[in-house]
Structures are given as structure tokens and as C-alpha cells.
Amino acid sequence: MLTRLQIRNYALIRELDMQWHNGFSIITGETGAGKSILLGALSLILGKRADSSALNDKSKKCSIEGVFQIEKYGLDSFFQQHDLDYDAQTILRREIAANGKSRAFINDTPVTLPVMKELGERLIDIHSQHQTLQLGNQWFQFKVIDTLAQHDTKLKTYKADFNKWTKLKKELATIQEAADKARADLDYFQFQFNQLDEAQLQAEEQEQLETELNTLSHAEEIKSNLSQVSSILYNDNNINTIGMLREAEQLLRKLTSFSNKAEELAQRTESSLIEIQDIAAEAESLAEQTEYNPGRAEEINDRLNLIYSLQQKHRVDTIAELLELKDSFDEKIQSVVSSDDQLIAIKEQIAQLEVKLLKQAEAISSKRRVAAKKVQSKVESVLTEVGMPNANFQVEINTLDTPNINGVDQINFLFSANKNGDLQEVSKVASGGEMSRVMLALKTLLSHSSALPTIIFDEIDTGVSGEIAGKIGNILREMAKGMQVINITHLPQVAGKGDFHYLVYKKDNAQETISHIRQLDREERIAELAKMLSGEQLTEAAINNAKELLLD
Fold first, then answer.
1. Which of 119, 275, 444, 503 is least enclosed, having the fewest CB within 10 Å?
2. What is the pTM of this model?
3. CATH architecture, range 1-123+453-519
4. What pLDDT is recorded for position 159?
């Protein structure tokens, strides 16, 4: 529960340090005195976003700090999960700098706003006038029924499986779309692959073929020149090159006994003779082998033309690139084949998960229908208590054809204020006062089921007065036996039911208007209630009436 609230430099509040108590606390004050400012400051330590417009003095930072007693609420696991120091007396603090930047702390450890919000939602429920509009909201209606059904674990498991199921369906759609597109192009891919595959391309063959064709195209010239080389070396114009080298070697050998240089020259001449002989023999052999072969030339031309046409078609320059394309077409063909297997596997997963989801949803739906009857009974009981004995409230649960994040249920809160009246959606037919009373009944249910430490009502009694207001006060007081209840009200019949009474008021000085809040003692409470009954001019009747309200 909330035990202390400190506010500095927020809106019309310069500095505030309030002690809060267990039980039923009342907050009153004139319109505009700052009651909503108090709630706004409190919402900041519950994770609401803020900016510099909240600052009273733009040159100083704003800070809001709340102290909570949490030992009875099983929050140890939350602190372990977020690596926070657990303390039975836990402090939540927000600081807002002049530039609008804010920081959040839990027990002096910096945390993110989502973490602070998560803890805040487990400490305090603030019911504002605006929240009454949530009666027609599907999210709120599911929250009411599911809180009463007390199947959080089942619901979390179902939602996790539903998200997995949804993800698989999206994945299936993506793969199916890609497969359909690939299948539409399959004939094209297959044709291109077949053409390249049938060509039986070899990585180095283009260069080899081009070289061979070049040789065939110049066969006569090659044969003639090689023959001349052989002739020159063996015998050209009666000059035998090889015979001359032989004779030179013999002469040099005769000189080797007289000169080391002669020996060296003889060896070099011998090497040259061997090389020339080899050249002559090879030239002669090549000349004999070289013949123009028109059949082979045509065959090579045809092969090269095929290669060139494929390169031109696919806008590449080499056979290596054509082979890469062939592999690419093959991969696309195989992907179509494998996508079929993948689609079958995912469809099987989806079908299996859907069976599981429907089974889970059926169990959840069954518990919701039991809880719905309790909600109907409790709401109608409270409505009778607060002056609506003919009201009829029903929770309509219809079954959907396809599961969604909430299961297979569609929930509607139906309402009629009059006997035998037509039931319609509560948000469409209930007046402001009627909606407040329905919401009060639902909040009473939720407070008992969710074990919240604190609930704050901001004028839950809107639209009612007199005897009914007193009955609403009794319900709030009864609720406060199991939790801390704080209620902002303009009705003295409700204010008189509180265990503690706080007054919000404004004071003006030469520079500014400042909001304050203080706890009233018994005599101050009587005066405040009398003022709420009769206005600024206190009458003896109003004072006596106020005393009676406190004694009630």
C-alpha cells in the first residue's frame, strides 16, 4: 500500500509530503484546487510519460517519490526478474529535468519506464472518470472476466502459442507467395538450365577452341614456314648449318689441349648443334603434321558460335559465368521443389498447433462462462444496493469461428436499467451515473480477485447523490477492509464514510498560486462536510448533518 507521497515542483504543487494510511481515505476540495494534479503526479511514478510542461519552476527539476509497503503481495519474483534490490518498504521515484528528460528509479536503482509501469500496475489501480468509458472496451471486458476466472497461466500459455501460430501462418504466406512466383517462372528456369546443360560447357574449352581454330585457319602458312625452317637448318643454298656446326666443333676440340677457352667454346658449340638439330627435326615434324582440315574447322566454328550466342543471350563474357548461371537456374528449380516440402511441413505444424490452441481456448472459454455468471450476479447485487433494483446486467459470450489473441470468445457487457428492458451494450444505453455504478461493481469484483494493495477512485460517484451516494460510500468502506482505498469525491455522503479525510486547497501569493493538501481532524472534517452540504455559509443544520454523516 501507499504510505508516503512526496512531490516537488510539479504543476501547482511546489512541495508536498503526505503520509497515507490503510483503510478508506477521502480526498475533497473545490474544483481546480489540484485533486487531478495529485493524481497526475502519482501516475508519473506508475510509469506515465512526462515532459517539462509539468514543472512549476522551469529552472528546477521536478521529483515525485512514493513509498509502498509491499511485503504481503508476493512481488519478490518481480525484483529478481529485473535484478532489483527487494525491500518490504519500496520506493518509486521519478525525476524530470527542465529540458523534459526524465529518469525513473526503484529503490534508487535506475529502471526503464516499462519496468516502473509493470510494478506500478501491481501496486495501484487508478480509476478515473475517463476509465468508465472502458466499459464498452473489449480489452477491459476480457480483463474483468479473466481476472475473475483466475487462469493467468493458461492464458499466457495460450497467447504464447497463438503468437507462434500467427507467426507460422505469416511464414507460410511468405513462402507460398515466393513458391507461387517461382513456380510461375519454373518453365523459364528449366528451359534456360536445359539449354546450358545440353551445351556441356567446359571451363577452359573456349580458349582451346579459339587457339585450334586460329591454327587451322593459317595451316598453309604454318606448314610453309616450318618447312623453310627445316630446310634452312639442314641445307639452304648449299649451306648446311648443322654440318658447319659439326665442323666447327671438331676444330675447337683440336685446340682443347692448348686452351681452356677452346674447351668451353667446343661445349657451347656442341649444345647449339644439339638444339639446332632438335629445332630442325621438330619443325619438320610439325610441318608434316600440319594440314588444313575443313571438317574440323567447321566443327570448331559451330561450337564457338554456340558459346558466343549463349554469352550474348545471357550478357556475359566467359564460360565460367555461363556455368554460374546454370548453377543459379538449378538452385531456383530445386528451391521450387524444396519449397513444396517446406510448405507441407509448415502446414502440418500449423494444423497441430491449431488443434492445441482450440483445446486450450475451449478450457479458457469454459472458465470464462463460469466467471461470467459470477460477474452478472455480483454486478446486479451491487446495483440493487445502490438504488437500481430493476437493473439487468449480462455478460454475453459468443464463439468465434477462428481463434484470436483472446481465444475463441467474443465478450459483450449488456445492460438494461429498467424492468424487462431490452438488453443492449452497456456503453450505448447506460447514463453517466449508471455507468459509474456498474463500474463500481466491477471494480469491487476486481479488487477482491487481483489482490491489489491500493485502488484510487476519481469521482466514481459521478451522477448520483443523496441516499445512493451514501450506499456507494458504504461499498467503498467495505472494500477498504481488504485493501487501501482512496476516493476523490464532491459528495458529503461519500466523504463522511472515510476513515481519513484529506483536503486539497489553493493559496495565492504575489507571484503564484500553490496547491496544498492536508489531513483533517474530526472538527475540520465536520466543517468541510458542512461546507460541502451548504456552501461557504455554514449553517447549524449543515453542521449537525455533517456530524450525523460522520457518525453513520
1. 275
2. 0.66
3. 3-Layer(aba) Sandwich (3.40)
4. 94
8-state DSSP, 57: S
* Distance between CA atoms of residues 480 and 485, nearest Å: 5
For residue 552, pLDDT beyond 80: no
Distances (CA, A) of 50 to 10, 61, 183: 11, 12, 54
Q: Which three cell numbers stand for residue 393?
A: 446486467
Q: What CA–CA distance (Å, rounded) separates 85 from 221?
A: 97
Residue-wise pLDDT tens digits, 321-336: 999 999 998 888 887 7
* Closest residue by Cα to residue 143 from 165, 121, 128: 121
- Residue 469 pairs in a beta bridge with none
Angle among Cα 182, 185, 190 to the nearest 5 degrees reads 105
- Of 345, 410, 323, 296, the closest CA to residue 179 belongs to 345
What average pLDDT does this structure show over 128-138?
72
- The single-letter code of the amino acid at 374 is K
Residue 138: the pLDDT is: 85
Give me Rg for the CA atoms of the chain.
48
Task: Please state, in angstroms and rounded to a whole number, the distance separating the CA atoms of residues 536 and 521.
Answer: 19
Nearest to 550 by CA among 473, 478, 480, 490: 473
State the pLDDT at residue 224: 75
Q: Quick one: which H or E segment has residue 283?
A: helix 260-289
- Whether the Cβ atoms of residue 501 and residue 28 lie closer than 8 Å to each other: yes
Identify the H or E element spanning 186.
Answer: helix 186-198
Contacts of 436 (CB under 8 A, 6+ apart): 132, 460, 461, 462, 463, 464
Distances (CA, A) of 120 to 35, 113, 481, 499: 20, 10, 22, 24
Q: Which of 171, 165, 73, 179 is nearest to 122 (CA)?
A: 73
Asked if residue 314 lies in contact with residue 241, where contact means CB atoms within 8 angstroms, the answer is: no
- Positive or negative, the CA dihedral 158, 159, 162, 163 is negative
Q: At what angle do helices 219-234 and 205-217 cross, to 10 degrees?
A: 70
Q: Burial level of 352, CB count in 10 A (0-12/13-18/19+)?
A: exposed
Query: Would you say how long the chain is, in residues?
Result: 552
For the chain, the domains span 1-123+453-519, 189-333
- End-to-end CA gap in the chain: 26
